[in-house]
Write a structure and sequence with these properties.
Structural class of chain B: alpha/beta
Number of helices of chain B: 18
CATH class of chain A: Mainly Alpha
Number of domains of chain A: 1
Largest sheet of chain A: none
Number of strands of chain B: 15
Strand content of chain A: under 5%
CATH superfamily of the largest domain in chain B: Periplasmic binding protein-like II
Order of helices and strands of chain A: HHHHHHHHHHHHH
Strand content of chain B: 5-15%
Largest sheet of chain B: 5 strands, mixed
Oligomer: heterodimer
Number of domains of chain B: 2
Helix content of chain A: over 70%
Helix content of chain B: 40-55%
CATH architecture of the largest domain in chain B: 3-Layer(aba) Sandwich
CATH architecture of chain A: Orthogonal Bundle
Number of helices of chain A: 13
Radius of gyration of chain A: 23 Å
Shape of chain B: globular
Distance between the termini of chain A: 31 Å
C-alpha cells in the first residue's frame, strides 16, 4: 500500500469516525443490549438483571398469544404490502399519465403521509364507529347490510386497521414510484406503442421491469414498516377486540412495559428483529442474484 | 497600585454579585401529572397560589395524559432527569418496580410531620405503602355508579330502580322507546368493562370475599365470581350495551351519553370534572346517579378507590419543599375546597368542607350514595389498578371475550386465577402496606 493510499484511508477513517461513533452508540450498542436483556428476567427498572439463559425463548415458543400475534403480524404485513406496493404502483402509473388534476391526486395521496400516526388512528377510529362516516355512507347508498362495528368485529378489525395504516403509508411509496416512472426513457414507451402494445402491456413489460430495483427497495421498507407497526393499533384497539389485532409490536409493549417483564419483552423484540433481518436479507440476495 | 486597587474592587464586585445571585436562586420543582385534563387546570391554580406565597419556589407542571404509567416516566426517573414530584398508579406492577428500584423516597417523615396520619384513611395507606413505608399520597378518591339522563327517565315515566328487576324493566322500556344502546359501555377500550367486573365481583362476594382473594387464600374462580360474570354476560346478550359494545371507545360513547342519545352508563366520579367544564353546573343537573341495584339477598356496597398517588422521586434535590408542595396541594383547606368544587374528591374526610363549597350536582349525589351505604362496607371501584398487570391484561381480554360470547364465565375466571397464581408465586401481588409507625 502506497503512502497516498494510506493517507486516503486515514482521511476516510477520520471523516467516517463521527458517523460510526453515533451508529455504534445509538444502533449497535442498544441492539446488543436488547439481546442481552432477552436472556434476563429484568423488570426494566431494577438495577439487578438476573440471567435466566434461554428461559424467555422457551416461554416464547409455548406462548399461544405470541403465536397469535405472529399470525396477525403476517396477515397485517400481507395486507399492507399488497396495498402499499402493488396498489401504490398501479396508482403511481395512473398518476404518471398526463391527466387533468394530476397534482391534486399526488397531493391527496401524499397528505396522509405527513400526519402523525396517532392523528391517523383518531381519524379512522372515528370513521369506523358504528355511526361513523363509513357506515353512514353504506346506509346512504343502500348497502346498509355491510355496515358493522368495524373495530369490534373479530374478523374485520385487523384488515380494517391495516387499510387505515396503508392509507398513511401509501403516499410515500406512490411518490417514490412516480419518481422512478418519470426516469424511464419515453422512447421505450413510444417504441412499444408503435409495436401495438396496449396500456397493460406497457405497464407489465416496461414500467415494472424498469422499476425493479425501486420496487425491491419499497418492498423492503414497507415490510420493515409493516412488521414494526404499533401506533395505529395501540391508539385504536390496543390489540383488541380480545386479541384480534394483537401484533408482535403491541405484544412486546404489553409484556415489556405494562407487565414490567422487560426481559421477556426483549425476547419478542429480538424475534421480530431477526424476522425483519431475514426477510430483508432474502430480498437483497434475490436482488444480487438477479443483478 | 491604582490599577491593582481597581482590579481588586472589580473582583469583589463580581464575587458579591455571584453570591447575591446564588442566594437569590430559586428552588425549582418539576411536577409530572397524569389524569384528566381538568385536573391539570385545578392543580395549576393551586400551585400558582403556592408560588405566590413562596416566591423562592418555581414549579412547572407537565401533563402526561391519561395513562397511569406513561411510557416516558420510568426511563426519565432512571436517568435522574425525571420529575421531582409525579402522579402515577399505585399497587403492584410498575409502581412496585419503581419502589423496589429505589427511584422514589419514602414519605414517612412527612406523614407524621404534616399529620397526614390523621387525614389519610388506613385503607388508602394500605394501597400506597409497603413494609411500613409510605411511598405515595393518594391523589383523589373515586367512586363508580350508574349515571342516568333525567330527561329520558322523565319522558319515559321511569324512576330510579331499587332492585335489579326494576333495572331490567327500565332497560326493556328504553329499548322499546327506540334507544339502541340502553347502557353506554365503551368496550373497545377494555378498561370500562372492568368497572362492571369490579362492582359485580364486590356485590357477589362482598368486601371480605374480595379481601380474602387479594390478601388471603381465596380464589378468583370461586362460584360467586362466576355468577357475577354470568350476570354481566347476560346483560350483554340482552342488548344492554347495544349491538356493538366492543366497537365503540369510551370517549365516543360518553359523548353520546352526554348528548342525550344513551340513557345510562356505569362510570366513575373521574368524569365529573370534565363534564362540569363541558356542560356547566346547570347542564350537569340533567344527569343523576344511582347505585347499581342489588339482586335478592345482596347489599349495596359503595365502590371506592384512589385514582393514583403522588410520589417524590429519589433525584429530587429539595424533598422537604416537594413534601410541602404536596401538603399544600392535597391537604390545605382552600386547596381541598377548590378540588371539591371542580369535581375531585381529595383523600380523607371532606364533610367539614361541604358546607363551604358548592359541589357539582353529580358529585353531591355520589356522596349521598356513599354516605348512605358506607356502613355495608366498601368494595373496589377499579380492581384492575390493584392487581398485577399480567392479571389485568388477561382480565381485559377475558371480559371482552365474555361480552362477545367467545368465552364462558368459568373460562374467564379460570384464566384470571391462573395468572393470579403465577403473580402470587412470583411475589407480584399487592401486599398490605401495614401501619406506618416509624419516621424512616
Amino acid at each position: 500500500m502506497g503512502k497516498g493510499s494510506l493517507r486516503d484511508l486515514g482521511s476516510a477513517c477520520f471523516f467516517l469516525a463521527p458517523a460510526l461513533f453515533l451508529y455504534i452508540t445509538f444502533v449497535i450498542y442498544p441492539t446488543l443490549d436488547l439481546f442481552r436483556f432477552s436472556f434476563t428476567s429484568w423488570d426494566g427498572v431494577s438495577p439487578v438483571k438476573q440471567w435466566v439463559g434461554i428461559r424467555n425463548y422457551q416461554e416464547l415458543f409455548s406462548d399461544r398469544i405470541f403465536w397469535q400475534a405472529f399470525r396477525n403480524t403476517l396477515l397485517w404485513a400481507g395486507i399492507v404490502l399488497f396495498l402499499n406496493v402493488f396498489v401504490a404502483l398501479i396508482l403511481a402509473a395512473l398518476i404518471a399519465e398526463p391527466i387533468r388534476g394530476r397534482v391534486g391526486f399526488q397531493l391527496a395521496y401524499f397528505l396522509p403521509a405527513v400526519q402523525a400516526g396517532v392523528v391517523t388512528a383518531t381519524i379512522w377510529r372515528w370513521m369506523y364507529q358504528p355511526n361513523g362516516v363509513i357506515n353512514t355512507f353504506l346506509r346512504t347508498v343502500g348497502l346498509g347490510r355491510f355496515a358493522r362495528g368495524w373495530l369490534g368485529d373479530f374478523a374485520l378489525a385487523l384488515p380494517a386497521l391495516a387499510v387505515a395504516s396503508s392509507w398513511m403509508g401509501m403516499g410515500v411509496n406512490i411518490a417514490i414510484f412516480l419518481g422512478g416512472i418519470q426516469n424511464i426513457d419515453p422512447a421505450l414507451y413510444e417504441a412499444a406503442k408503435i409495436d401495438g402494445a396496449n396500456r397493460f402491456q406497457l405497464f407489465r413489460y416496461i414500467t415494472v421491469p424498469s422499476l425493479y430495483h425501486t420496487i425491491v427497495i419499497v418492498l423492503i421498507l414497507s415490510t420493515i414498516g409493516a412488521f414494526k407497526t404499533f401506533d395505529i393499533v395501540w391508539a385504536t384497539t390496543q390489540g383488541g377486540p380480545v386479541r384480534a389485532t394483537e401484533l408482535l409490536a403491541t405484544y412486546t409493549y404489553k409484556k415489556g412495559m405494562l407487565e414490567v417483564r422487560y426481559g421477556y419483552g426483549s425476547s419478542i423484540a429480538v424475534f421480530l428483529m431477526l424476522l425483519i433481518v431475514l426477510l430483508s436479507a432474502l430480498y437483497f440476495f434475490q436482488q444480487k442474484r438477479e443483478a | 497600585m491604582k490599577r491593582w486597587f481597581l482590579l481588586l474592587a472589580m473582583v469583589w464586585v463580581l464575587l458579591g454579585w455571584s453570591a447575591l445571585s446564588w442566594g437569590a436562586e430559586k428552588i425549582t420543582l418539576d411536577i409530572w401529572m397524569q389524569g384528566e385534563p381538568g385536573a391539570v387546570t385545578i392543580h395549576n391554580t393551586i400551585l400558582e397560589e403556592y408560588m405566590k406565597l413562596n416566591p423562592d419556589v418555581s414549579i412547572t407542571l407537565t401533563f402526561m395524559g391519561g395513562e397511569l404509567f406513561p411510557p416516558g416516566l420510568i426511563p426519565a426517573l432512571k436517568a435522574g432527569t425525571g420529575p421531582d414530584i409525579f402522579s402515577a398508579g399505585t399497587g403492584p406492577g410498575q409502581p412496585a418496580a419503581i419502589i423496589d428500584a429505589g427511584l422514589v423516597i419514602p414519605l414517612n417523615k412527612y406523614y407524621f410531620h404534616y399529620k397526614w396520619n390523621e387525614v389519610i384513611p388506613p385503607m388508602i395507606v394500605n394501597y400506597t405503602s409497603s413494609d411500613g413505608k409510605l411511598w405515595a399520597v393518594g391523589d383523589w378518591v373515586e367512586h363508580t355508579g350508574m349515571l342516568y339522563n333525567r330527561e329520558i327517565f322523565a319522558n319515559l315515566g321511569l324512576k330510579v330502580p331499587e332492585t335489579y328487576e326494576e333495572l331490567v324493566q327500565i332497560v326493556e322500556t328504553v329499548k322499546k322507546a327506540g334507544y339502541e344502546t340502553p347502557v353506554a359501555l365503551g368496550g373497545a377500550d377494555k378498561w370500562p368493562i372492568s368497572h362492571w367486573q369490579s362492582m359485580l365481583f364486590g356485590y357477589f362476594a362482598g368486601p371480605e370475599g374480595i379481601d380474602n382473594v387479594m390478601f388471603g387464600d381465596g380464589r378468583w374462580d370461586q362460584p360467586e365470581f362466576v355468577e357475577a360474570l354470568k350476570l354481566l354476560q347476560n346483560m350483554a346478550k340482552d342488548g344492554w350495551f347495544g349491538p356493538n359494545p366492543l366497537a365503540v371507545g369510551y370517549v365516543e360513547i360518553m359523548n353520546e351519553f352526554w348528548a342525550g342519545k344513551i340513557p345510562m352508563t356505569f362510570t366513575g366520579t373521574f368524569v365529573v370534572s370534565d363534564a362540569f367544564n363541558m356542560l356547566g353546573a346547570e347542564g350537569l343537573k340533567k344527569f343523576g346517579v344511582f347505585p347499581f341495584p342489588p339482586l335478592p339477598g345482596q347489599k349495596i356496597y359503595p365502590t371506592e378507590d384512589i385514582g393514583g398517588g403522588w410520589y417524590i422521586s429519589k433525584s429530587c434535590k429539595h424533598p422537604d419543599v416537594a413534601a410541602d408542595v404536596l401538603n399544600f396541594m392535597l391537604f390545605r383547606r382552600e386547596s381541598r375546597k377548590l378540588l371539591l368544587e371542580n369535581g375531585f374528591v381529595p383523600v380523607g374526610p371532606v364533610s367539614d368542607l361541604l358546607e363551604e363549597v358548592v359541589l357539582p350536582s353529580l358529585l353531591e349525589e355520589f356522596f349521598e350514595i356513599v354516605d348512605k351505604y358506607r356502613h355495608n362496607g366498601t368494595i373496589h371501584a377499579f380492581l384492575d389498578t390493584v392487581q398485577p398487570d399480567n392479571v389485568t391484561q388477561v382480565t381485559y381480554d377475558g371480559l371482552q371475550s365474555l361480552i362477545a360470547g367467545l368465552m364462558t364465565p368459568e373460562e374467564v375466571v379460570a384464566e384470571i386465577q391462573k395468572e393470579w397464581e403465577k403473580a402470587k408465586a412470583e411475589g407480584k401481588i399487592l401486599k398490605p402496606g401495614g401501619a406506618i409507625t416509624s419516621l424512616e
